[in-house]
Inverse folding.
């Protein structure tokens, strides 16, 4: 199983930040396939409070019989912003490094 | 989250007939209801928007409501068995979920008086429970998916008992055989039904379900030894002592458990436990239960089997005789929807044409075949809840709406044909006699492609909107109608449009459609991955289908070896392709790739210039087709079909356009390769493409095939003004023209 190299894989961080969902390079695919594996059995999901308007992060526990856990904040008004937030968290967990770049700013969009 | 939900008693209703709706109200004590037409169930601001106009009817009004729950879990009930006060019981069991507590293998129990007996598995150990909760437990732990003989004898008056366990095959170093005997104290027999794989609970439901297979359950008068009872089949000499001996290898197609004893205490199998299951003596020589019934004497029970939720009818709508065929829904509301709570629900159904053709009444030339078998197959699809790794496949975070949260909180609504039971075995039956959470207008699916994220029913509403926009008159018939009525249902239609993903077909449906095409019918295949899985309907029970995930194909579970044959019919299950009827024989093209993230455009192919297909491209000069859309941003996405002569695509088929520039997550399906390839993704594999196709049939008909589930998601783009819409309309108008194609 691939282990993320924070220096070599840094190039894919920006690729993801610019386009969280879409056709990704093989390098970013490898990073995402690695980050999206959680050996704890838990699963992050995106709860849509209001279609096309509001989302919040929730976590499915490993045990199907335990309840969903919702994060009361933040409430995202852009689905891709939530993708970026989860990417940042997973990157930190995998590398110990914080990604401080904000989600795409208005002039980048 | 979701505060109101329900289900209809049928998906298809004819004018003059009645349809009922069963509602669970999770909040408050009253709800409002009305009938709506379903023209577009997608609220994506990038599209034309919701279009669910009120259809005034006698239903309009306010109704009292209350929460309803489903009593899931399968079991056998034999109501005529007398109170058992001096009895031996034996069965062969194959447990599958040993970490569940309190799984009752067999019971005759009065939950209120706490009398009778229960034979149960508790944390993997075998216990006998009698009156007042007295219990004796064997210290040995069973192993999952291993056959055991279990037996007990009990004399209620004295409490004398014996409890025994032995494996059918011994494993070195495993201590899983034992016996205890003694007294549990005097008790009295319960005058209640005998139940296998469950016990009555104090609330009146049947619970404490056993997960696993049971074979040869038998009741014998008096105390018999385990040595005698563990033999399978039982020695003939024991016949005079039999109280009941259920033979699950008899009547596999039915829900009846045949008692072969003199008393004929036949039982009912409730909530459809799996039949046609291998028993302890399966040799591997025969793979069909019809060839060797004695080797298929097991029934697999699950705590999460459900056939009929059984809620009472809250609303009954008597349709007028002149009710117009189309897509409708019952819209129920119990207040304002907020981000914290969804207080509305749409319960879809279809009005079909009258069952008896009326003289002098001309039906439309066009019919939409609503893929209700596929809607049933996907009912309460819960892989986003139970399977880890799905996010990798989706290429984005898993989407949960209010409905998905409700499904998470209410596993008793049970599963789709894509799910596994709690014990890991595949779900092979799915019914519509329960809420179908993901089959509704306004449902946005975790599976539905980036953008609108629609799949199955709600994705098909894009087509309804497009037909309405173009003022096309059409009837709607459903898969179940086609299965029951056969070819005569469709013989008069000139054109049949499919849904976006007509994946599941019974033999009767397949035969009827092929007969219609062979007699000059004009098929517009509006989606992808059609005619893929063979299914079976039940002869006794309405609204339930069976699939066996046999041998090959994109599967979320695999049928066990030897269990590839439908229990409902005895037919060999699995892919139609593996039954010698690839989808290419029906629609000209067949399934080749699957990917759920983003969609792609088509590019015109040389056959687009063939004069035979000139009508398709009238007014369309573009090289690129469908580089837009509400499902993944393109017309070619989710699941793709292509031409393959070796699989039955006809020699005269025209490849009008093919899709390109697919995502790495658009993956070649596994029946398309033998050895695993390193280049399965659409960015690296030349076979990954959708073929927009057309061919004429010898009888003067024709087939137009889009080859993509996402095609219909491009129809509404730019208020229906786009090249996908124009091509589809060109094809439909020509297909509606009675002039023969050949």
């Amino acid at each position: 199983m691939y282990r993320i190299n924070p220096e070599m894989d840094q190039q894919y961080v920006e690729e993801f930040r610019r386009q969280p969902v879409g056709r990704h390079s093989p390098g970013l695919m490898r990073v995402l396939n690695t980050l999206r594996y959680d050996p704890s059995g838990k699963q992050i999901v995106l709860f849509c409070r209001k279609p096309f308007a509001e989302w919040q992060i929730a976590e499915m526990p490993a045990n199907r019989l335990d309840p969903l856990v919702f994060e009361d904040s933040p409430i995202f008004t852009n689905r891709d912003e939530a993708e970026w937030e989860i990417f940042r968290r997973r990157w930190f967990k995998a590398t110990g490094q914080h990604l401080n770049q904000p989600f795409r700013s208005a002039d980048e969009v | 989250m979701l505060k109101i939900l329900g289900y209809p008693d049928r998906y298809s209703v004819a004018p003059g007939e009645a349809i009922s709706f069963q509602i669970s109200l999770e909040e408050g004590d009253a709800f409002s209801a009305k009938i709506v037409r379903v023209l577009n169930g997608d609220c994506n601001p990038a599209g034309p928007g919701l279009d669910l106009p009120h259809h005034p009817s006698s239903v309009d009004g306010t109704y009292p409501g209350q929460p309803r729950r489903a009593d899931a879990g399968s079991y056998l009930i034999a109501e005529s068995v007398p109170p058992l006060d001096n009895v031996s019981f034996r069965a062969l069991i194959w447990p599958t979920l040993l970490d569940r507590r309190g799984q009752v293998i067999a019971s005759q129990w009065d939950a209120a008086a706490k009398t009778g007996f229960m034979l149960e598995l508790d944390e993997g150990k075998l216990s006998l429970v009698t009156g007042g909760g007295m219990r004796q437990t064997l210290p040995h732990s069973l192993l999952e998916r291993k056959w055991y003989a279990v037996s007990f004898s009990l004399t209620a008056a004295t409490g004398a008992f014996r409890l025994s366990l032995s494996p059918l095959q011994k494993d070195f170093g495993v201590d899983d055989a034992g016996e205890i005997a003694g007294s549990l104290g005097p008790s009295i027999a319960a005058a209640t039904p005998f139940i296998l794989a469950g016990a009555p609970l104090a609330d009146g439901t049947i619970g404490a379900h056993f997960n696993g297979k049971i074979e040869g359950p038998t009741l014998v008068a008096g105390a018999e030894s385990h040595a005698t009872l563990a033999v399978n089949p039982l020695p003939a000499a024991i016949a005079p002592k039999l109280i009941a001996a259920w033979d699950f290898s008899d009547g596999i197609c039915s829900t009846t458990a045949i008692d072969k004893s003199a008393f004929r205490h036949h039982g009912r199998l409730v909530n459809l436990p799996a039949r046609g299951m291998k028993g302890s003596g399966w040799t591997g020589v025969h793979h069909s239960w019809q060839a060797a019934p004695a080797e298929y004497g097991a029934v697999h029970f699950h705590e999460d089997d459900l056939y009929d939720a059984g809620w009472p009818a809250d609303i009954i709508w008597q349709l007028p005789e002149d009710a117009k065929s189309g897509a409708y829904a019952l819209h129920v509301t119990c207040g304002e929807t907020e981000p914290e709570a969804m207080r509305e629900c749409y319960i879809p159904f279809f009005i079909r044409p009258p069952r008896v053709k009326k003289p002098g009444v001309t039906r439309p030339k066009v019919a939409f075949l609503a893929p209700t078998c596929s809607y049933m197959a996907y009912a309460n699809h819960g892989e986003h809840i139970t399977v880890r790794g799905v996010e990798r496949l989706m290429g984005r975070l898993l989407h949960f709406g209010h409905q998905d949260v409700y499904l998470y909180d209410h596993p008793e609504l049970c599963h789709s044909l894509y799910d596994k039971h709690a014990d890991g075995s595949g779900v092979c039956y799915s019914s519509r006699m329960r809420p179908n959470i993901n089959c509704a207008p306004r449902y946005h699916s975790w599976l539905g492609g980036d953008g609108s994220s629609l799949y199955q029913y709600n994705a098909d509403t894009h087509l309804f909107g497009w037909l309405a926009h173009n003022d096309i008159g059409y009837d709607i018939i459903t898969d179940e109608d086609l299965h029951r009525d056969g070819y005569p249902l469709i013989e008069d239609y000139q054109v049949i449009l499919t849904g976006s993903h007509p994946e599941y077909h019974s033999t009767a449906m397949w035969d009827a459609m092929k007969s219609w095409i062979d007699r000059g019918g004009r098929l517009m295949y509006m989606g992808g991955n059609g005619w893929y899985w063979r299914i079976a309907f039940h002869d006794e029970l309405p609204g339930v289908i069976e699939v066996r995930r046999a041998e090959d194909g994109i599967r979320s579970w695999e049928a066990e070896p030897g269990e590839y044959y439908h229990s409902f019919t005895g037919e060999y299950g699995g892919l139609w392709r593996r039954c010698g009827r690839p989808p290419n024989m029906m629609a000209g093209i067949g399934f080749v790739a699957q990917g759920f993230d983003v969609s792609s455009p088509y590019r015109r192919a040389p056959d687009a210039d063939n004069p035979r297909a000139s009508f398709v491209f009238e007014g369309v000069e573009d090289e690129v087709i469908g580089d837009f859309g509400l499902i993944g941003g393109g017309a070619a996405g989710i699941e793709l079909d292509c031409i393959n002569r070796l699989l039955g695509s006809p020699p005269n088929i025209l490849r009008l356009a093919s899709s390109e520039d697919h995502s790495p997550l658009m993956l070649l399906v596994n029946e398309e390769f033998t050895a695993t390839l390193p280049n399965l993704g659409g960015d690296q594999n030349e076979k990954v493409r959708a073929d927009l196709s057309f061919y004429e049939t010898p009888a003067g008909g024709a087939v137009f095939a889009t080859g993509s589930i996402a095609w219909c998601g491009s129809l509404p783009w730019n208020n229906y003004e786009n090249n996908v819409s124009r091509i589809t309309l060109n094809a439909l108008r020509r297909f509606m023209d009675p002039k023969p194609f050949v």
Chain B has twelve helices and 44 strands. The mean pLDDT of chain B is 97. The CA atoms of residues 368 and 497 of chain B lie 5 Å apart. The longest strand of chain B covers residues 589-600.
